[in-house]
Amino acid sequence: MANSPNESRPSHEYEQGWNAINELIRSDRTWSGFERNVFYLNNRDGSFSDVSGIVGLDFLEDSRTFALGDFDRDGRLEIVLKNRNSPQFRYLKNVLPELPPVISFRLSGKKSNRDAIGARITVETESGRQTRILRIGSGFLAQHTKELFFGLGAARSPVQATIQWPSGLSQKLHDLPINHRIWVEEGLSPSRLEPFAKSSRWPATATAPSTNETLPHSVQTWLLVPILAPDFSLPDLAGHIETLSGHRGKPVLLHFWSASLADSQKDLEEFDHLHEGWAQKGLQLLTITADTAQNGGGSQAQVTDGHHSFPILKSSRDVIATYSLLFRQLFDRHRDMSVPVSFLIDPRGNIVKIYQGSVLKEYFEADFRSIPQNDSERLAKALPFSGVSESYDFGRNYLSLGFVFFERGHFEQAQVFFQQALKDDAKSAEALYGLGSSYLQQQKTDEARECFQRALQLHASYPGTPPNAWNNLGILAAREGNPDLAIQYLQRALQIDPEHSIALQNLGNAYRQKKDWPQAKRVLERAVALNPDDPEANYSLAMVFAQQNDTERAYYYLQKALASRPAYPEALNNLGILYLRTRRPEEAKRSFEESIRVAPAYDQAYLNLARVFAIEGNREKTKTVLLELLKQHPDHAQAKEELKQLEQ
Fold first, then answer.
1. Would the CA dihedral through 453, 457, 460, 466 be positive or negative?
2. Fewer beta carbons within 10 Å, N or C terminal of the chain?
């Protein structure tokens, strides 16, 4: 909260910070750093003692609030504890065998407000005087009981009480019995004197140490809202390609497994036994081994010990990552997918049920025969109880799913979710912007441009959508070699949000593209002023100074870029060029070599390093560097040409 923006405008860093915190919480991390709850005992001398462990209240969960109330009417206040994580609710009962006497009051206003909020009660006994005020709001989204309790210590005689009502009335009560609940209506004598119920004894077995909860080995979940299963194209063990979309029209059981698990072969044998019968009844079976994604391919022998009657597909890292990410988003607690896990997919290609762990195979057949066809059937299967309504307004946030997949680089799957979001709301500027961004990353220029232009014609729910759309139109124009149009688009973005740092960087680079160095310098200096540690802004500004032969400032901003992003191959490469300009060849070589180390596929550092060795007359090292480049890019024309010239 300390870094919240001072002005009423979106702050990307602040938003990202909260998003990260919320994701950590939903991923079984902790808000409070696993700090235990604390319970203090009033020593009645101005000091307190920490008795948290003694009374058993030092829980490790992320507790958000608590409330006090006498739920069993025995005159002892119980504690209801609400946690953010599991267990979300705890009920704690005071079970001390002997407690001093107590008296409590339930007030009802007549001239004052009905709940008597603000009333002040003072009780007097031979032990002294106490005062309590009836308040509203007891903590974060919590309210203690509105019954006021007084511990009476060593008092044994009747109690005298004075009530100051919010209306101004002062009411005195005499000879009230201890260990009673007193019901008082404003201005009237007590209407009811109720002795506290006898406190139930705590079972002897309850004092034994609690054991850890035994969790089930498998979990089955029907989805209230089915979701389209991500498509894939994977080879089986014989090299034949299978696609998930090719199995549309009939239900599919998609099973992920690993040979490293003890029961994997047993599961495959059971599938062998059942597969033929399932196929005759209409259930298709596809299994994917996660081992090939982990070891980069693996041999067939590593994957399975024999021939099977159903397809065993060799997975890829991308497919595993896609399904794991989807799995995380389908449940409120975001956890990575672990194998074995199975997905029941309906004939339209939608995931309708998820099985975690090894599941009795009989469930699969029973479930595919009874796939729900409407909302009421899904409710009946997915909810543990029927509830009080025949229908509930359940939905799926495809817009959020699209951005989750986009941010993690799964652009094709993000496109699918943005398209679904657009079907749900054809006037969503955010869905069009997200869809356009997915197309942009896939180099689908025309489709991206159309989406951004359509988004700008709609009302945006998020203030950042219009400037972001103009910015991306500017990127498209610059890519197509039209810096003048790019500048117009980027200036439109900055008219809406003058501190749009990415638009400033892109505008500076558009001026660089035009070789308008003064304008590029002006814009990029503003971008760096807004974000001093941004590696891209510092790198672009360094390139402007390099073009102006200001090597000192070019070197300064390249170093700043590398301080923020040490593995920045372009910056390392251009730093090497700068070293060459200033006749520091050894430092240049080290910079080119570091660029190659952090990005082996980046070709420019190889070419520049080879040229340094060529200038020095070291033909062998020149040849070695060019051959290393050809290992990365076997068809690299320039490397082949330089190698050919070297061998002449």
1. positive
2. C
* Distance between CA atoms of residues 213 and 615, nearest Å: 71
C-alpha closest to that of 354 among 325, 320, 333, 331? 331
Q: How far apart are CA 310 and CA 257, in angstroms?
A: 14
The length of the chain, given as a count of residues:
648
Mean pLDDT by 10 residues, the chain (648 residues): 66 81 80 85 92 89 91 93 86 86 97 97 94 91 94 92 97 96 96 91 52 74 95 94 96 95 89 93 95 58 65 94 95 89 97 92 91 90 76 85 96 97 96 98 97 98 95 97 98 95 96 97 96 96 96 97 97 96 95 97 96 94 95 95 88
Q: Look at residue 345 and give its three-state secondary structure.
A: strand
Residue 18 identity (one-letter amino acid)? W
Task: Supply the DSSP symbol for 65.
Answer: E
β-partners of residue 106 are 183
Q: Give the position of tokens 């190698």.
A: 643
What are the CA-CA distances from residue 528 to residues 344, 456, 642 (Å)?
Answer: 51, 28, 39
N-terminal to C-terminal alpha carbon distance within the chain = 67
| Full-model pTM | 0.77
CA distances to 200, 586, 637 from 74, rounded to whole Å, are 8, 84, 88
Task: Judge contact between 123 and 199, C-beta under 8 A.
Answer: no
**CA 251/CA 282 separation, integer angstroms:** 7
Place of tokens 């009802």: 108
Q: Is-contact 25 85, C-beta < 8 A?
A: yes
Spatial separation of the C-alpha atoms in residues 306 and 323, rounded to whole Å: 27
Cα 68 from chain centre:
33
| Cβ-proximal residues to 232 (8 Å cutoff; 6+ apart), any chain | 243, 244, 316, 319, 322
Q: Is the separation of the CB atoms in 454 and 432 below 8 Å?
A: yes
Dihedral sign for Cα 136, 139, 140, 143, please: negative
637 burial level (CB within 10 Å; 0-12, 13-18, 19+)? exposed
Q: Classify the C-alpha dihedral 466-472-475-481 as positive or negative.
A: negative
Report whether the peptide linkage leading into residue 340 is cis, meaning its omega lies within 30 degrees of zero.
Answer: yes
CA–CA separation, 286 vs 310, rounded Å? 7
Predicted local confidence at residue 444, as pLDDT: 97
State the Cα–Cα distance between residues 289 and 179, nearest whole angstrom. Answer: 68
Q: Of 519, 595, 528, which is closest to residue 560 (Cα–Cα)?
A: 528
Instruction: Tell me, letter by letter, the H, E, C secondary structure of 620-637.
Output: HHHHHHHHHHHHHCCCCH
Q: What's the rounded Cα separation, in Å, for the pair 341 and 229?
A: 14
Given a contact cutoff of 8 angstroms between Cβ atoms, the answer to whether 290 and 296 are in contact is no
Per-residue model confidence (pLDDT) at position 601: 96
- What is the number of other CB atoms lying within 10 angstroms of the CB of residue 262? 7
